[in-house]
Amino acid sequence: xxxxxxxxxxxxxxxxxxxxxxxxxxxxxxxxxxxxxxxxxxxxxxxxxxxxxxxxxxxxxxxxxxxxxxxxxxxxxxxxxxxxxxxxxxxxxxxxxxxxxxxxxxxxxxxxxxxxxxxxxxxxxxxxxxxxxxxxxxxxxxxxxxxxxxxxxxxxxxxxxxxxxxxxxxxxxxxxxxxxxxxxxxxxxxxxxxxxxxxxxxxxxxxxxxxxxxxxxxxxxxxxxxxxxxxxxxxxxxxxxxxxxxxxxxxxxxxxxxxxxxxxxxxxxx
Length: 270
Prior knowledge:
Layout: H1 11-36, E1 44-48, H2 54-62, E2 68-73, H3 76-84, E3 92-97, E4 110-116, H4 125-134, E5 136-147, H5 152-164, H6 167-178, H7 182-191, E6 194-196, E7 200-209, H8 212-220, H9 225-231, H10 233-246, E8 251-252, E9 255-269
Parallel strand pairs: 1-2, 1-4, 2-3, 4-5
Antiparallel strand pairs: 5-9, 6-9, 7-9, 8-9
Helix pairs in contact: 1-2, 1-3, 1-8, 5-6, 5-10, 8-10, 9-10
């Protein structure tokens, strides 16, 4: 889930991402994705922009036959954490740090690919989709999710950043969500060599403890990490506190439950 200068996390931030953001949103999103599709019989699976491996591990848990599962991400820290947090079991996992526009795989290597909330970060989306098509065989399935709109929680985050950091930080906070035109995305997928189905809406709730420590960890496990740390620890604590205040509307007991919705695209390589 990374691209040049868009999701470049430190090793600590990547591990926090795995510990916090995967259970809060990307693990549940992976399960919701798998519940929404008919998983084909396959022997080789590619997780494009795999982050710390949430989708790869989720699909592996549903397969009863041995499979080669490859995760590819530009961010080396993400790949290191994915490798450290994965047990092969009956499957063969590989973790590769490489740009999506030039993945080190042969033509037609895979018969199923996922890209969970990575496409929006790619600087050259058509090239990324063409490269993904290259490494898939004819008839292979591609499953892509992209956010459908800016979630209310991240509007809160952006507003706080505008007040206490700057507009650049605010824009960075909502960048994953603003490229969300379903028709444009579907056309790009089709033009890359796929028959793309009409996308489905895929709702999911982001859940996280409603406490200061968790919020500090949440905001530091993002591309704004460097800007936040440069502002000083007191500033980080203040910003986290202000976000918690703004997010109070989402509180259910001791948990924040925040709605988000994605587009889910399923396409077949032709």
